[in-house]
Amino acid sequence: MGEIPRRGAAVAGRPGSKRAAGALAAAALLISAGATACGDGDQAETGPLNAQKLSWNDCPAPSAAQGAGEGEPAPLPDGTEWQCSTLKVPLDWSKPDGERIDLALIRAKAKDQDRRIGSLVFNFGGPGGSGVATLPPAAKEDYTTLHTRYDLVSFDPRGVGNSEGVRCLDDKAQDAASATDSTPDNAAEEKASLALTEKTAAACEKNSGTVLPHVDTADAARDMDLMRQVLGDDKLHYFGISYGTELGAVYAHLFPQKVGRAVFDAVVDPTHDPEQSSLGQAKGFQLALDNFLKDCAKDGGSCPTGADPAQGGKRITELLARLDAKPLPTTDGRQLTQTRALNGIAQALYSKDYWSYLKQGLEEAQQLGTGNFLLALSDAMTGRDQEGHYSNLQSANTAIACADAKQRYTAADVRAKLPTFRQASPVFGEFLAWGMLQCTGWPVEGQSDILDVAAKGSAPIVIVGNTGDPATPYEGARRMADGLGKGVGIEVTNKGQGHGSYGTGACVTNAVNAYLLNGKVPPNGKVCT
To answer: Which terminal residue of the chain, N or C, has fewer Cβ atoms less than 10 Å from its own Cβ?
Structure first.
């Protein structure tokens, strides 16, 4: 089984951050599976839970489950300190007076309190990414303008980080999992891959069986509405990135009258089932790789894949084939396997800012015969720190994806689809096809076959799609806008590279800021280059 976390996790900070090295630790690939939205419409304010008072205190350093870090979050450039708290929510929203769990929250109060609009809630993707760990470094670089009039708020969704984080395999077992061949070539390798999937599901049930049935996206959306009430906001102002766009869309479907000013960046396609999403990603990552190869070729002799982009692609497939037979050594004792190399290459395609790292990794592998750089990129993808500890990113990602989607694929299903996936991407096709087995044998039934995002009566939601996005292909933005409904989904196109657009150029950033800060809705169909 491969190490690809499913769906979309934005980088810590925006995708494309200039802090590429630090941001790597919170990035992840996605295979999107439809979340459930029960279509129960706007709900009444939530009983005594909405009367709870949050106790805000100084924030500790992120925990291991959140991805650890380098200590307590640093103040924003204007001196604003971060505060942390916990919100009590029902474990089971069908039993709101039953058992409760705590969700971890973080905020930085608006700088200009006289002109404060309210709270701006962020979800950076995954599913499985810790908002508590991600928001402080992201805000320092990207959200200082928004901070003038908003309390910047994020949280660990249920099952993530410090919010009853799902626990599956331990660190040693996850290291072993990442060395397992994720593109089996024979019956023995296929058997080993399926055995790992079974082992992972059993470990998740053993360690987190109580929470597994309750980590679906619809319940996370209900948590957000309770959060809105407890924060004292009449409307939810929201910024969702990658999987965060799916969470935001489910919220808008359930609570259309409570949507305030909302932005979706790097947009999940709500019309795709897991197979279609996997295939779309295969095409998206191949497109991003082809764009990298063309850019690298401009460097001539200094490009490790050569001056011919077509030949460059062949060099990469040949490298991966060699790694399948004989992994490369690294300085920490682990080997660079084919699976780890694929993760590392994919990680670097999340942003054009990372392409220089991919060049270095390929050059090292080809010229020195070692895999340190690509292994480091792979570790960033999978949430492994330098001490060998994993965040709960992968465990939470699997748990949420499998709680949302009903589809359960078999090895026979995958084998039948392999030719289509290989045609879509010679590099990533098989990898993503076999990844469809993620939920095979999962102990909890998925909620839905398809994602319903219709949000009649909602305020406008700005939908930003990037034409060069590998993880959430551009076409999904139009389908999300259409699904939300006429007058609700306002589409903005960015002709660029990477996973996400806000902060990568003035056009998109100014359009988003104008809406969030001043309520100015951009023209539907606006194009930025």
So the answer is: C
